[in-house]
Amino acid sequence: xxxxxxxxxxxxxxxxxxxxxxxxxxxxxxxxxxxxxxxxxxxxxxxxxxxxxxxxxxxxxxxxxxxxxxxxxxxxxxxxxxxxxxxxxxxxxxxxxxxxxxxxxxxxxxxxxxxxxxxxxxxxxxxxxxxxxxxxxxxxxxxxxxxxxxxxxxxxxxxxxxxxxxxxxxxxxxxxxxxxxxxxxxxxxxxxxxxxxxxxxxxxxxxxxxxxxxxxxxxxxxxxxxxxxxxxxxxxxxxxxxxxxxxxxxxxxxxxxxxxxxxxxxxxxxxxxxxxxxxxxxxxxxxxxxxxxxxxxxxxxxxxxxxxxxxxxxxxxxxxxxxxxxxxxxxxxxxxxxxxxxxxxxxxxxxxxxxxxxxxxxxxxxxxxxxxxxxxxxxxxxxxxxxxxxxxxxxxxxxxxxxxxxxxxxxxxxxxxxxxxxxxxxxxxxxxxxxxxxxxxxxxxxxxx
Length: 449
What we know:
With about 450 residues, this protein is an alpha/beta fold. The protein is built from 15 helices and 13 strands.
């Protein structure tokens, strides 16, 4: 944190502008060494300055340089941003000169990491920065903005404040029992307050699951035996020839990916290899991948052939998916019916050949995930798996506290449990954290952010 870092903050390629960002105590000093124009150490704070990047006597590029002094910057360090013409050679040369003159190449997400470590943002706001970059829909953008501007963090801070008030009253009762004007914190009082907090957490969690779907989308896999029409269904959903379609069984041997939007929610769709017993080594690897994906999918589209009797192998798959979100697609209804529909649940009939059933599939997906209800104007909830899992952990601990109170455990034992819950909530916003968590979280950011 004592060194000065630099990185390219815009995507490489040919374009109008590229930005190289520099942060640290020597940002202005180092940039001054390669800049021909005003003395950057003397310019006004938060100013834009015209000049040239130079390598000794050679002009490299005509630039605009923004100078921003600590602490009123994103990282709360001195920050310089060099606006160059966006060409790979130009941008890389400017970065090279900065590194030769004392900067270190920033690690992925290191600018945002410094903003967090210097108290500029909390962990939810940091995650919001990355979510904003990755947002694929308008709803996802709104969620990210609420994370970035601190509105989501306020939910957690309010919960922690309520816990602090309970803990403070418990402490006073333990340390100063002689004061008669202090409200006595009995197990009954604590239980009532804990139940109110539990109610709030349950409400946040129910909304947050919807936010997670909006942000991450629905991981959807298409499975079924070879030649039942999986690839054709994928192509029809995407409205493009993404997957190869032939009459030869086993054409799809690896995962084919694509994405669509339904009511502003992204479906990340994977077309998998046909599931069957095979001696072909390559195909068997694809089949294994298909079976493995079932466990991690949010939605399974299981395709059966209307013109064939359900095999024992297909019945096994039906058992495997029965407790998961699934839709059974009975394809090829344009052919003679041989399938027994009475053993199927949650199915639709489809004929890709006659272009029927796709809208029924979209409708089913909307029903399963209640997408019409998700279409909300309130996007101020958690959306990352990390924060949601921590909030669930806090809720489970609160339930244990409630059981303990009902069993009349000593109030000082209740206090210890409540402090642990307060600490767990602190992990969500980064009030308490481990170095390993921070390194892992920010390593997922792009370079220069």
